[in-house]
Design brief:
Layout lengths: L1 H16 L5 H22 L5 H20 L11 E2 L15 H4 L2 E5 L7 E9 L2 E6 L1 H7 L4 E5 L5 E5 L2 E4 L8 E4 L23 E8 L2 E13 L4 E4 L13 E4 L2 E10 L1 H6 L3 H4 L6 E2 L2 E6 L1 H8 L7 E5 L2 E6 L3 E10 L2 E7 L20 E8 L8 E8 L5 E5 L2
Antiparallel strand pairs: 1-14, 2-3, 2-5, 3-4, 4-8, 5-6, 7-8, 9-10, 9-12, 10-11, 11-15, 12-13, 13-15, 16-17, 18-19, 18-20, 20-21, 21-22
Amino acid sequence: MKHCFYLFLCSFFLVAAGGWGQPAYAQKQLDKILQKLSSLEEKSVRSSWGRWLVKPSTTLIKASVAGLSRHRALAAVSPLFSQELPSTGPRPLLPAPTTIRKGVFTLQETPKTHGKGSAFAVMIDGTAWGVTARHVLDDIGRSPVLSVTDEQGKEKFFQVYSLREGNVHGADIALFRIPQEALAYIHPFEPDYTLPKAHSSIQSAGFSHGFFSWFPKIDVLFASDHRILTNYQDYPIRNGYCGSPLLRNGKVIGVFTGVVTPETAQKSAWYPMISPTGSITISPFNHAVPVEWVRILVRQQPSSGGITLRFAGETLGLLHPDENIHSIQQLREDRLHKTFSAYPFMDYAHLERFFEIEPGDIFRIIIHKGDRSSSKRSRYWYEWNSQTHTVTRTEAK
């Protein structure tokens, strides 16, 4: 009972404070509580009051996680925490609005191949562009066929060619021109460049294994200039859905690019910084690229088109569509102190999150330019000095 009261006080103060002054310290305290709770639960099952302890200890775990998530450095990832694995239901077979159904279509290597990916049309600066996920073209080729259905239900094919592509680890999108004759069967979407808010609902439509599905309600977990994270947990996503649009009121806000399962999360390089002891389960989630990246690629503005990178309020530079952040290094007293690999909920306006900054620390934001299929891959980094607040850029040799 004394231990339970001690744990209750620890959890109470953690929840009330929303985490202590530094996120790393708050995480350590949380993991200590979780370890002690776990130990007490194992002992309690052999005692007469075991059943009483197990129930409130689970509540304390959830309360502790909730309290920690209010800390500004970890607030972005709190929707990804889960104490129970969600149940998955059957794939929905709901009718979509006609304009939405005509805005999406499939891509495949040839008219006779079965491997298909999703794509859609969007109007950018008065021109209809075809959009899909960049990695889809890695699978089906750079000159796939576009498949649409006419009013009689007959399938029609049109050859398209990849024109502009982003980085598969960052702006995972590819653009192509839609043939004029194909536009007779396609209704392009309008873009909406305003990011959705966390806990809001959006929609999506696309193809999985060649079959069309409409998702009228998707939960938004997190949104930044870099990524939109969503939860489709009641509607399992299958192969072929990458490249479909995220929609809000019939307008495109993003491009669906992949799924992250709890198993994948626990094997990732970024998971230990969320849960050093492996005690926190990550809910399955899906990620998308904001439609702003599509506009940047369409306009081809290498000198000014990109996402602004900031560290501790200081502007570092722009991240372009063919680049991605590989990792962030923290150097202290001329020695490597900590390295964080890029993570899906990275907020490019607050790259300092998850670091405890001391005077004299130096941070290197390492960026890879080009992609796995690029013949001109390169690497450079921005270096930010916490004492002088200066930023330098260095090209790797």
